[in-house]
Design brief:
The chain is α/β, with parallel strands linked by helices. The chain has a single domain, classed as Ribonuclease Z/Hydroxyacylglutathione hydrolase-like (Metallo-beta-lactamase, Chain A, 4-Layer Sandwich), CATH 3.60.15.10. The protein is 23% helix and 25% strand. The strands form two sheets. It has a seven-stranded mixed sheet. Strands 7-8-9-10-11-12-13 form a seven-stranded mixed sheet. A hairpin with a 2-residue loop joins β7 and β8. α7 runs parallel beside α8. It binds zinc ion (ZN) (2 copies).
Length: 257
């Protein structure tokens, strides 16, 4: 499967979008502002959205895209997330105040969106492609995801802070090729990283102690003005990782597993 990075920044600005990964033409992992690069025909072909969590930078375009593609689609868009995340969306977004309740519109029998709960460790198989929910540790209920074909895998941390369970779950994935991990903060912001439940370079280095990682490490959720500094700190904190196996994830690039 092909994974196209629509957006991977930790904030908007300078044309960069927030987290959204398009898998082939029909599956979206998170629906941040990166989704804005898609045309209406591309939006209408998306059948499944897997959300890591309920924060706006990961789901801002979900309500808008459901509305945009409604007339072009014959079946509901299926949104997969933890039960806790789905409950937050229902209560705080699809509540007929912030946005119409598309779980019942246009009708309860043929709604615009259908919610499917899954928990960390569960696997959803879509036409031979596996999406596996991975543990995350964030300020709200959160998960990461692995995308697995028969031979190869990509793992995505979602938003998380210190999370040994994520790194140990990687051992079970076939042919791990890429690990996309967030690093939202610089090391001088470690107190903020703890408070906001994000990674900074030294926290990743702590988690990776004793972990044998045979995959490319791609960094996401960088805040645009500090991306270069965060990468420098990561390279210093992870001297065992070859320079060409550690880099920033780029919007527009396509990864294959
Ligand atoms: Zn978040
Ligand atoms: Zn985020």
């Amino acid at each position: 499967m092909k994974i196209r990075v629509l957006g991977c920044n930790g904030a908007i600005g300078n044309g960069g979008g927030t987290t959204a990964l398009l898998v082939d033409h029909d599956v979206l992992i998170d629906a941040g502002t990166g989704v804005a690069v898609l045309g209406d025909d591309e939006l209408a072909r998306i059948d499944h959205v897997f959300l890591t969590h309920s924060h706006l930078d990961h789901m801002a375009y979900l309500p808008l895209m459901i509305d945009a593609v409604g007339e072009a689609r014959e079946s509901p868009l299926v949104v997969h997330a933890s039960r806790a995340t789905l409950d937050i969306l229902q209560k705080h977004v699809f509540n007929n105040l912030i946005w119409p309740d598309f779980t019942r519109i246009p009708s309860a029998d043929a709604p615009g969106v259908r919610f499917e709960a899954l928990e960390a460790g569960e696997r959803v198989v879509l036409n031979g492609r596996s999406v596996v929910a991975l543990p995350a540790c964030h300020s709200v209920p959160a998960m990461g995801y692995a995308l697995c074909s028969d031979e190869a895998s990509l793992a995505f941390s979602g938003d998380t802070t210190t999370n040994p369970a994520f790194w140990s779950a990687l051992a079970a994935l076939p042919g791990l090729r890429y690990v996309i991990v967030e690093t939202a903060f610089r090391d001088e912001q470690i107190a903020l990283a703890h408070a906001a439940h994000h990674y900074c370079p030294s926290l990743i280095a702590n988690d990776l102690r004793g972990v044998e990682l045979r995959a490319e490490l791609l960094i996401s959720h960088l805040k645009p003005p500090h991306g270069a500094q965060i990468l420098e700190e990561l390279r210093a904190a992870l001297p065992d990782i070859a320079p060409d196996a550690l880099r920033a994830l780029q919007a527009g690039e396509v990864l294959e597993v």
